[in-house]
Each structure stands twice: as structure tokens, then as C-alpha cells.
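cron nightly-structures :: item 1 of 1
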Amino acid sequence: MSALRLSTEPNRTEVCAKHGEFESRHIFGKIWTRCAHCAAAEQSEEEERRAEQVRMRRQVELYQRVGAACIPERFRDRRLETFRAETDEQKAALAFAKAFAADFDSIMTTGRSALLIGRPGTGKTHLSVGIAHAVMDEGYTALFTTTIRALRRVKDTWSRGAQETESQAVAALTAPDLLILDEVGIQFGSETEKQILFDVLNERYEKRRPTLYLSNLTVPEVRTFLGERIFDRIREDGGKVVTFDWSSHRGKQA
């Protein structure tokens, strides 16, 4: 079957004010093709406008993710690119953080977590927040909180007139793709608090959502504080312990 022709009118010469003469083809009725150069320019402008709208929408979504991440103002500008790695140990910690961020698609299928331990001021927060920024840039969600704040959020639901239920508080801690749990071991560590932590972290474990644990304690102390059940989950699926065994950056600045 031959193709249906919409028009048998011969082409005609038109004049574009910007590009001069061009050959116009009849479409149907009173519709003729316009200057190809003008049409291409308008199409390019429309594509650029749409691309800009996409960029703006993604930027707004990123701002929303960063806001929801609850990263403290003091640390909000920390990026992997700004971490100062001078010693072999510091370079190894930075390499771990970069690999963790780059491999986050795979990590989300396993829930692989990590424990960052070391003295205060050695860069644990810097690298963990840098990881959070990197994964949020890719569309993932993250949440930064201290262990004390996480426990307080859950325990506050037990008060009369609480604004959220215990289930909602636990869900808020398990929903983000990446949880950064800072200052592990600072709180008292009662059996009730250990059970709350287990409930939150076990749910993240079951949903294969990775967690970064930050602590100034030693590995045995973290194991004792968290309990064997939680600690065992950190090691599963290739979870690593990264030791920040150098002097405080803050001490050097002082």
C-alpha cells in the first residue's frame, strides 16, 4: 500500500526575515513549513527550557533531602572532596568513604554497614556527612542523628500528649536509605535503651538499609555497648570497621 500524501501542492519559496529565502513545503490547508533554521532554534530553546526545569526540580528535591537529613549546620558543608588526607591511614579512610558512596547502589541491595571509630576531631563526622551528600546527590535519602537524639525521639512518644507514636518515631529512623548514628556509646546504655536501639537497627537490618556507626569507643567497648546481636549485624555482608587513629584536626588548628 502506497503512503498517503497529505498534499500535492508544489513547494514554494518563502522569505525569513532572519535567514532569507527558504523552500516551504505544504502540509495541508493553509499550513506550510516554516524556516528550518528558526524551527531548529526554537526546538533547541524549548529543549533547554525543559532541561532547566528538570535541573531546578532536582535542585529543589536535593535541598529537601539535605534539609530532611538533619545534618548539623556546623558540618553541612563537609564533602569528601574537602577531607584533608595526608597520612596513609587518612588516605585509607577517605578511600573507604569514596568507595562506599560510589557503590551505594549495590550497598542498598545488601544493607552493608560500617563502624567508624577513633578519637574526637579525627574526621569521622566529616567523611560520614560527605558520604551522605554524595548519595543524596544521586537521589537517595539520608539522616544524621546522635544516638541520644534517636533514643530521646522514641522515648518522647511515651509522654502524654506526644506528637507522634512510638511506631512513627521508629519508622522515621528506619525510613532513610542511609542512617548516620553518631556518638555511639555516649548515652547511659540501659537495657531499655539497648532494646530501643535494637528495634530500630534490626528493622533497618531486615529492610537492608545501611547504617554508619560513629564512636569514640574501642571496638570491644562498642561491642559491649551495642550488644552482640547489633554488632553481629554490622559485620554482616562485608561490613567494615574503619579506625581513625591519628591526632585531632581541631587540636592542630588550636
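cron nightly-structures :: done
DSSP finds ten helices and nine strands in the chain.
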